[in-house]
Amino acid sequence: MSLPAYTKSQLALRNGQDRDEIWVAYRGKIYDVTRSRLWRNGMHYEHWAGQDLSNELTDAPHTEGVFDKFEIVGYLV
Description:
Strand order of the largest sheet: 1-6-3-2
CATH architecture: Roll
Strand content: 25-35%
Radius of gyration: 11 Å
Structural class: mainly beta
Helix content: under 10%
Oligomer: single chain
């Protein structure tokens, strides 16, 4: 099954404020973090949902493996 592609504008709507979905992108993949208690209200520390976090992970205290537990819902174009 192929996943849909989303633009940055479409991703931005999944910020936990405008819609119920809380999504973030990393390295071209979009992850659904809605069920994570760490992303409640669309914010995780200084990071906002609905954005591409590829450049921000270098400052995080964890590796990209943190995304393994989340469903990939699409691709960022």
